[in-house]
Design brief:
Elements: H1 4-20, E1 23-28, H2 31-42, E2 49-55, E3 69-75, H3 92-99, E4 105-111, E5 114-120, H4 131-141, H5 148-157, E6 163-166, E7 178-183, E8 188-193, H6 205-214, H7 223-231, E9 239-243, E10 254-257, E11 269-271, E12 274-276, E13 285-286, E14 291-296, E15 304-305, E16 311-312, E17 328-330, E18 336-339, E19 343-348, E20 351-355, E21 357-360, E22 371-373, E23 376-379, E24 388-391, E25 395-397, E26 405-408, E27 412-414, E28 418-428, E29 432-444, E30 447-455, E31 458-461, E32 464-467, E33 473-475, E34 477-481, E35 484-487, E36 489-490, E37 498-502, H8 506-542, H9 547-583, E38 589-596, E39 600-604, E40 610-611, E41 616-624, E42 627-632
Parallel strand pairs: 21-23, 22-24, 23-25, 24-26, 25-27, 26-28, 27-29, 28-29, 29-30, 29-31, 30-32, 30-33, 31-34, 32-35, 33-36, 34-37, 35-38, 37-39
Antiparallel strand pairs: 1-3, 2-3, 4-5, 5-6, 7-8, 8-9, 10-14, 11-12, 13-19, 14-18, 15-16, 17-18, 19-20, 38-41, 39-40, 41-42
Helix pairs in contact: 8-9
Length: 644
């Protein structure tokens, strides 16, 4: 808590400080003139002066009732802002400049009040000012007597403050003559001071700035340069003291695209340490709602000024707009272009378009690379071995498909057929349509429709597999469909095994088969572990196990626990799939409008599988009383004429 005695003591100190201040009363037609007069009388720079207005001036009318400004000025007790050091407010390059080593400096000024000496301390590892340095400086500016003892104290203190060391007969008439030269189309001003005559004083900052302003230099004054001339005047040398600012035109608005616009640039990717020349990434895929381009607004120009105050106008940047075409719209403010659909973004005729179909004019090969597109892909040629085509829409191929990968969320249509060479993979979210399928792995979310035949292939269809045509046969391989398999011929005269399964979800059934195989494998491993554990436990009852066998015993216990957990989990998954398959209402049927040859194995739901040993003609197989039975041929009701 602040006491009354503390307040009184503080006020007493402030009163003593105020009494010790040298005060002058100055006047002028303007406040600036009054301040300059006060600065001359106090022998201080304007930045070191505080003042109180005694009487406000008035311009009057045509000279009548004009009143001068009257103020009382004194030396400021606040720190000089020029000398303050505030690291947090300084730019890194300014801090670096300050931190550099700098020698101390001695400055001598002659003012109307006498001769003043200031000694600045060094910075960092800079050299201190010696008394000899100070005396040499004084000799250059003052040849009469001075207080040498005081000079020694000033050098020792080096507090960067001017201290009066001598008087002289001041003669205002011999003050330096100042000139200013305005050049470079009024963009620069050079200041020259001519040496003062006997009794003349050095000009101060306020006087020099006032002279510049009186001679039309009102803008771009380089205060630091003027202060340097105040500290260490160089007479007869032209110094740059003002520099105009040149106008800066604003940048034009521009469009920033969120995709690569230069199709000539191929970005190859590495795979397993090698460059994959199939991944050319030539398609610019976009999704619905994606921002395709943004407009960078035009910038306003910044006007410049000459040193005489003339404004130099600048041009504002020109506006632009994003040109859009099909399947693209602009945001409400016109600053962004947004895709309306999934597809490929292209610039055609200067407009942004999103194309739902990507067309390959020839084959998919090293020239095109692998295709990945968020729409429909149309290939006018074939797909070479080793390449892939993946699409979020349909895939349509006018030629053939080799040992490659096709993956579409929609339909896959291959006009000339699929020759997978035992490793081709075709996955369709809907249906697969082809002239033939040979040695390929095919999965379809709906139908698999073939006109000529299926040979030695693994086919899964969530609804039907249909072969319709003069040579529409299924020979070899393994075909699974939920509802129906229908072909002209099933199997061949050669009698190779052909497996046909219907009546359940084929994907789930395939998973069930895999899980069953996994269960048998785990069960066998668990049986072996239990056998080894039994042997060690029998030995353990007779004698203490050696360290290596004890460690092995511990490892077997851990292995048994792990295998038991895996068996339990696989069993749980198997039960879940069986429950799901049991709830399905598919009846399932296998039909042939021609011949069913021996070697065909027919599996319908949970009925006893049928291994065909004799030829059947014009027949349909169904499940009845847990048995597969032949019945009169029933043609498939599915309309497949539109794409076969």
């Amino acid at each position: 808590m602040i006491t009354l005695d503390q307040i009184q003591s503080f006020m007493k100190v402030r009163c003593e400080e105020d009494k010790s201040l040298k005060r002058v009363r100055a006047s002028g037609d303007t406040l600036e003139e009054a301040l300059q007069q006060a600065a001359i009388e106090l022998g201080l720079a304007l930045r070191k002066i505080e003042y109180e207005i005694v009487e406000r001036g008035a311009k009057g009318t045509f000279g009548f009732k004009r009143k001068p400004w009257v103020l009382e000025a004194y030396k400021s007790t606040k720190p000089d802002k020029k000398d303050e050091f505030a690291p947090d407010d300084m730019a890194p390059d300014e801090m670096e400049e300050i931190s550099k080593d700098r020698d101390g400096r001695a400055c001598v000024r002659r003012t109307s009040d006498g001769v003043f000496l200031k000694v600045s301390p060094p910075v960092g590892k800079g050299r201190k000012v010696t008394e000899r340095d100070a005396l040499d400086k004084i000799a250059l500016r003052h040849r009469d007597s001075f207080d040498s003892a005081l000079v020694a104290k000033i050098v020792k203190l080096a507090d960067d403050e001017y201290v009066k060391i001598a008087d002289y007969d001041y003669n205002p008439g011999n003050d330096p003559v100042m000139t200013v030269d305005i050049t470079d189309n009024e963009m620069k001003a050079f200041f020259v001071m001519h040496p003062p005559g006997p009794g003349g004083a050095d000009p101060d900052f306020a006087a020099m700035v006032g002279f510049l302003q009186a001679n039309r230099v009102v803008d771009g004054i380089l205060e630091e340069a003027v202060r340097d001339m105040e500290e260490e005047p160089e007479y007869g040398v032209a110094k740059l003291v003002a520099e105009g600012s040149r106008p800066r035109n604003g940048k034009d608005a521009s469009v920033q695209f969120s995709f690569a616009t230069d199709n000539s640039q191929i970005n190859l990717r590495e795979k397993n340490g090698r460059v994959d020349f199939k991944e050319l990434n030539l398609i610019q895929n976009v999704v619905e709602g994606q921002i395709l381009a943004r407009k960078i607004p035009a910038e306003f120009g910044e006007s410049g000024r000459t040193v005489t105050g003339k404004m130099l106008p600048a041009r504002d940047g020109a506006d632009t707009r994003i040109e859009i075409g099909k399947n693209v719209h602009l945001s409400d403010d016109g600053s962004s272009a947004i895709a309306d659909i999934n597809g490929q973004v292209v610039i055609t005729g200067g407009k942004l378009n999103v194309e739902p179909v990507f067309t390959v004019q020839g084959d998919v090969n090293l020239k095109t690379g692998n295709i990945l597109f968020l729409g429909t892909v149309m290939v006018k040629g074939s797909v070479d071995d080793g390449f892939s085509v993946k699409a979020a829409g349909n895939i349509e191929i006018m030629g053939t498909v080799g040992k490659c990968t096709l993956d579409a969320e929609g339909d896959i249509i291959v006009h000339q057929g699929i020759a997978g060479k035992s490793s081709g993979k075709i996955i369709s979210g809907k249906s697969v349509w082809a002239k033939f399928i040979e040695n390929a792995d095919v999965e379809a979310g709906d139908l698999v429709v073939v006109s000529d035949g299926i040979i030695n292939s693994h086919i899964i269809a969530n609804r039907k597999i249909i072969c319709k045509g003069k040579r529409a046969s299924i020979v070899g391989g393994h075909c699974m469909a939920a509802e129906e398999i229908d072909a002209k011929a099933l199997g061949s005269i050669a009698g190779g095994e052909t497996i046909l399964e219907v009546g359940y979800d084929p994907k789930s059934k395939e998973n069930l088969d895999k899980l069953s195989a996994r269960f048998q494998e785990l069960d066998k491993q668990l049986e072996d572990v239990n056998l080894n554990l039994g042997t060690l436990e029998a030995l353990k009852k007779k004698t203490k196990l050696p360290d290596d066998k004890q460690q092995y015993y511990t490892e077997l216990l851990t292995r048994k626990e792990d295998l038991s957990a895996q068996v339990k989990e696989v069993n749980k998954q198997i039960d879940g799939i069986k429950e799901y398959l049991g709830q399905l209402t598919y009846s399932g049927k296998v039909s042939s409008s021609g011949t069913v040859f021996p070697g065909v194995r027919i599996i319908i739901k949970d009925a006893q599988p049928l291994d065909v040993r004799n030829e059947f003609k014009n027949i349909t197989f169904i499940a009845e009383n847990k048995l597969v039975k032949p019945t009169k041929y029933e043609e498939s009701a599915e309309d497949v004429t539109r794409k076969v």
